[in-house]
Amino acid sequence: MSKKEFVVFGLGRFGRSVAVTLAESGCEVLVVDDTQEKIQEMADIVTYAVKADVTDSETMESLGISNFDGAVVAIGQNLEASVMVTILAKELGIPYVLAKAQNELHAKILKKVGADAVVFPEKETGVRIAHNLVMGNFFNAVELSSTFSLMEIDALEEWDGHNLMELNIRAKYKINVIGVKKGNTLDINPSAEKVISKNDTLVVIGENEVLNRFKSKME
Ligand code: ADP
User: Fold this and answer.
1) ipTM over 0.90 threshold
2) Is this prediction's pTM over 0.80?
3) More confident residue, 171 or 9
4) Where in this chain does the record put each RCK N-terminal domain (predicted)?
5) 12 touches ligand 1 (CB under 6 Å)
6) Ligand 1: which atom is nearest the Cα of residue 100?
7) 80 C-alpha to center of ligand 1: Å?
8) Please, which residues bridge with residue 150 across strands?
9) What is the spatial distance between Cα 153 and Cα 218, in angstroms, rounded to a whole number?
């Protein structure tokens, strides 16, 4: 399988972080920025680093990026440049263009001009970090959406020796048990007859709010 090819426009903190991670993951990465120092800084890390103004359509065409797998528009401050490069990237035929937005209006514009995905890196990271701070002490959480998480929780003492049907965790706590860990063995999709012991870890899915209440119950 040939390596995936991505272009990253803009080498601010977000663009650099995306470009470095793509390169470390074995992808071919082209970065474009109009600041010489930023280009120099990335030259040894990515496949190609080009100093250019992304709003210049001729320059964009000369990059030969039509067959790339995806583009990341990592220009936040310069609204005009962000919108123009999104349009140009779509016009050149790049199938997946992900763009960073500064605010809701910026996001709307990016979607209207053809961005396939719009992200708010700082806002999204802030929300995730806050959730992890709230839930983090003893949960291993994977956020599935802003309202639901998949988590590991320790079995309660009072559950010891009872099976899942008797415990009726779904009705009682409104969480779904999708796995039971006993030591290193994980039983995915446990049956209703599965007997829980107090040293088990349960893998559950539920609403963050409910899981939070569940957490305080356990404290
Ligand atoms: P961050 O918030 O992730 O640091 P910025 O919006 O501050 O992102 O950074 C955007 C980057 O895009 C800067 O490195 C800037 O030099 C570059 N940039 C802005 N406008 C253009 C343009 N027209 N052509 C090429 N690069 C640009």
Assistant:
1) yes
2) no
3) 9
4) 3-119
5) yes
6) 3
7) 11
8) 142, 205
9) 10
Q: Ligand 1 pocket, 200 CB below 6 A?
A: no
Q: All domains of the chain, ordered by start, with CATH?
A: 5-119 (3.40.50.720), 125-218 (3.30.70.1450)
Say if ligand 1 is within 6 A of residue 13 CB: yes
pLDDT band at 126 (very low <50, low <70, confident <90, very high): confident
Q: Can you tell me which atom of ligand 1 is nearest the CA of 84? A: 23
- Please say whether the beta carbons of 175 and 211 come within 8 A: yes
Cβ neighbours of residue 50 closer than 8 Å, sequence gap 6 or more? 30, 31, 32, 39, 63
In short, whether 179's Cβ falls inside 6 Å of ligand 1 is no
Report whether pLDDT(129) > 90: no
CB of 84 shorter than 6 A to ligand 1: no
Q: Is the CB of 57 under 6 A from ligand 1?
A: no
